Amino acid sequence: MTDKHRGSCLCGEVRFEIEGAFEHFFLCHCGRCRKDTGAAHAANLFSTQARLTWLSGEEHIKTFQLPETRHARGFCRACGSALPSLQMDGALLVTPAGSLDGEVDIKPTAHILFASRANWDEHLEDAPKIDGLPG
């Protein structure tokens, strides 16, 4: 049985399907990933075997490659949502976990570049949990 995942951007212009398994799920705390996401870390799934198919909106996809680095980010030109990107000359598929429309069967493999985390990224599990918007 083949793993199959569907995903999309926030505005719905871009839709995609990934066929194959994810080998790693990393939470990256580096400054570049924090800038990319505006959050404490990026949550990306990695695969050297999965195949990406754009179902719609391919004309809305943009990839930003930070010059002189391996850091790249795919996103929707219309809404800015993070999208999968092929990196390392197509040898590696990097998929933002939040871009998938369903569940994934892999748990995070590791926090990476953890020493680079933001000073406010400590004991986040201790922050109050609110199921809705704050009152």
Description:
- With 135 residues, this protein is mainly β.
- It has one domain: Metal Binding Protein, Guanine Nucleotide Exchange Factor, Chain A.
- 5% of the residues lie in helices and 37% in strands.
- The strands form three sheets. Strands 9-10-4-3-11 form a five-stranded mixed sheet. A three-stranded antiparallel sheet has the order 1-2-5, with no helix packed on it.
- A hairpin with a 6-residue loop joins β1 and β2.
- The radius of gyration is 15 Å and the shape is globular.
- The mean pLDDT is 94.
Which helices and strands appear, and what pairs or packs with what?
Layout: E1 4-8, E2 15-19, E3 24-28, H1 31-37, E4 42-47, E5 51-56, E6 61-65, E7 72-76, E8 82-83, E9 85-87, E10 92-96, E11 110-112
Parallel strand pairs: 3-11
Antiparallel strand pairs: 1-2, 2-5, 3-4, 4-10, 6-7, 7-8, 9-10
Provide a brief overview of the structure.
This protein is mostly beta strands and 135 residues long. The protein has one domain (4-117): Metal Binding Protein, Guanine Nucleotide Exchange Factor, Chain A (Beta Complex), CATH 2.170.150. It is built from one helix and eleven strands.
